[in-house]
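Q: What does the assembly look like in three dimensions?
Context provided by user:
Components: two
Sequences:
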Amino acid sequence: MTLEERVKVIPLGGLGEVGKNMTVFEYGEDIIIVDVGLGFPTDDMPGVDLVIPDITYLLDKLSRVKAIFLTHGHEDHIGSLPYLLPQLGLQIPLYCTRLTAGLIQVKLRERKLVESVQLNIIVPEDVIQAGAFKVEFFRVAHSIPDGVGLAITTPAGIIVHTGDFKFDQTPVDGKVTEFGKLAEIGRRGVLLLMSDCVHVESPGMTPSEAVVTQTFDQIFREAEGRIIVATFASLISRVQQVLDTSYRYGRKVATVGRSLENNVAMARDLGYLDLPENTLIKVGEAVKYNPLELAFVVTGSQGEPMAVLNRIANREHKALSIQPGDTVIISATPIPGNETAVGRIINSLVRQGANVVYSAIQRVHVSGHASQEELKLMLNFTRPRYVMPIHGEPRHLALYSRLAQELGISSDNIFIMDNGKVGEFGPNFGGITGSVPAGPIYVDGATVGDIGEVVIKDRQLLSRDGILMVVLVADKESGALAGPVDVVSRGFVYMRESGELMDYVKRRVEEQFGQNEDLLADQTLTIRRVKEFVGDLLYAQTKRRPVVTPVVMRI
Amino acid sequence: MTLEERVKVIPLGGLGEVGKNMTVFEYGEDIIIVDVGLGFPTDDMPGVDLVIPDITYLLDKLSRVKAIFLTHGHEDHIGSLPYLLPQLGLQIPLYCTRLTAGLIQVKLRERKLVESVQLNIIVPEDVIQAGAFKVEFFRVAHSIPDGVGLAITTPAGIIVHTGDFKFDQTPVDGKVTEFGKLAEIGRRGVLLLMSDCVHVESPGMTPSEAVVTQTFDQIFREAEGRIIVATFASLISRVQQVLDTSYRYGRKVATVGRSLENNVAMARDLGYLDLPENTLIKVGEAVKYNPLELAFVVTGSQGEPMAVLNRIANREHKALSIQPGDTVIISATPIPGNETAVGRIINSLVRQGANVVYSAIQRVHVSGHASQEELKLMLNFTRPRYVMPIHGEPRHLALYSRLAQELGISSDNIFIMDNGKVGEFGPNFGGITGSVPAGPIYVDGATVGDIGEVVIKDRQLLSRDGILMVVLVADKESGALAGPVDVVSRGFVYMRESGELMDYVKRRVEEQFGQNEDLLADQTLTIRRVKEFVGDLLYAQTKRRPVVTPVVMRI
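A: Here is the predicted structure of the complete assembly.
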């Protein structure tokens, strides 16, 4: 047994969900990548727009990367391509299905990268040889059409990577997970199953998208005004459901929101949206119809501040505002951390007279991920030697491990990974053998990676008790205080009402540092001393600890 | 019909939940107050510790306040007493049940107020006359023992205020809601029902606390190590369940966390905790027992940063740390906004080898509030002329209104209030007739009410992209720039790595404001111009908008 007969599996990606955004497979000199997605910041990362994988490990191995495979078109699986493809190398061939390719093109076009990229469209019947890796595909049902999982044959054995999946028996597009192909792959013998596990907390089977169709039907039948449906811009099958139900009840549909409009146009061009005749209209045409003839699909179901739904809730949207009697359907479940924002939007819409339907009160959304019984089915279809739960947080991985053990898989053969951990697998070996850099790379505004933990920590501190700056002017010859001390604060106390406190701080600093001091002898020391002195002063007065930032000017 | 024959009902309290923290009742010259609670800040109020009701409306009417009634001992119903009692007047008599009084005393003792307060303990059979108000009580089941609702008889009619309630048929303390008394009050004729509606999204009946007993029993039976149960410090009945189950399985119980220990000692003294023999131990004695003989009850089930559970998760607690094989039960459901914090704790405990059980995977917590069928029962027991849902956010009030209409109550007789709205009710009148101040009062550190919307807004901005200060020194005679410009930033970019950007800003500001300018002629204008100039400069370079704070020093 030599090392060359093992395949390395390395989940990368910034946040707590293991291997969700990106996974590297390495056999000998050959490397392939599965998914190049991004993470959305949690509420302890103020001001961060996106979190992308750290690809440091790959930077000296780029010539060995044979191909990139994308399982489906959601942001957390393709969203880092515009940021990372230029670094990885535009010449690396990408492989994905048609709708996924369409979504990638929309994304790359915005960055003017679309012409330079080798985007290859596959169908699930294709087999792609990429160096030592032979990649086959199996169709999976998920909350976006055209998703696939991968069966990756290597000299060390077959790895099944499920992608995001559920076993929906009645999906909107009629395309069920390819059970037969999975079972057939299982018969060949699977070395490692990498299984989506993010919905492992739910017992039973995840409800079918058909349940949402039924709920929509009831709501559309009973609605006494316009209907506004908020959902994810990439949830093409949900848009299809709105179109179908609207057609049945004689409503026209307008889509509102740039990302949604782009995706709908693309999905329509590629034939992934089946448009009932004369149903889609432009939002500007809505004035021609009465409320009972209208439905809208809008962005912002997660409470995103700039998306359409939030702007409607704040009465800031130019084309759409709530009319009493409107029904608003929020066809999504808030991702943890977004509950407060979504709750606030619901309250605001209700106050404006809308009837708001959301997942806590009616089945207007179902998960796109497999529940416990489906996860067990996947295990029994593939019958792997080794198991690696992916896409979940540590608590999901731990629950999945217990579930797999219930099916008789030994805990020694279940690998709970972290991003950056290196797994190695071969006919007679499975283990975690090392680790590589995988820390989060933050994207904020135009720049990537120039803010790190220090900046994030500062932002958290600033938001807690604000900031207070103390400006001292020192004579450049003597180093003595050369003028009155100035104090400015933001987010600490309201300046106009706190003149007394500020005057007190100025006076005490002038007393303390005014006499016989050489402020410039050791400026770092001066700054530290002012900081401590003012910090203690403020805490004694207010029991708060704003960030104190002294500035010493030399005049 | 004169105005004097109407009773005024005014919900007060800072946050979005109507009338949860405090309600004022006014008839003629007489005023009573029900509950004096507080709100916990949502994630858009950085640095705020607590939110208390605005009592401006009452300040010129204090001599008319005849009594304060407290329905039960939860923070959102009694927590503002230490802040507001001194303003309201310590001589106003308080009325509440024994356990509620115990919890209030724990709270007032910390503030050295306990001796000065007129705390009267009632039993549900008591009748209290307070000016024009005759107040009767009915026992309600809730997630804390000894809760009551109120039947308030006024010359204008009877008002039923439910407090927080559920119709638990098998509560831990065996004391069910007094259905008979409610029905009897209903027969007398109820003018207005003020009903808890916060759990109106749930169909059916809320599960009984007995369900939690069953789950605990199963977990304790199967646990292979120590058991750590996290719950609310005031959830005395949950503590009872842990004690009972531990006793059954031969485990000793230690409580950890100051507020919990105080409450347990108090509840034990008052006889609200039934202590199985030799079960309660001190945490220091735990070393004497093996893991299978130990259970702990700890604070921090909502992910509060300073509470015990979070400190265990961060390996910072001095008395308790996770041992592999421990079972941790999080016996609470995260309040919206706390999901991320609780999720992070679960992940950390799992990584340390604990088996973590939480409400998403097992019934280790049930709500203390009535679901739809219970809310209907309350309506049918009391058969009120007018209805006012309370304790919920606008979306809950709207759902409750629809539910009441299903029972045949006209929408004209259902009053959807906001905090500060004035409702007036009499034999032939029900309406909203005005409004009074009710804005949130923020408590941050040692001080109450000195930070307002401006400070909160500043903190939000600071946390998004940080702050950049620009210090200019102007000659006090000429007003011209008298030295180099200095720039300091926090939470914007990491200073050590961004020297180039900072130098660029300094140079551009010196160029722009260096020549022929009188910076002191109009200092406000100078500050605004520097702010805009630097803001645009930074946005062009980074696509970020930090708070820019210029300081002009006069030398």
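Follow-up: Chain B touches chain A through 70 residues (CB under 8 Å).
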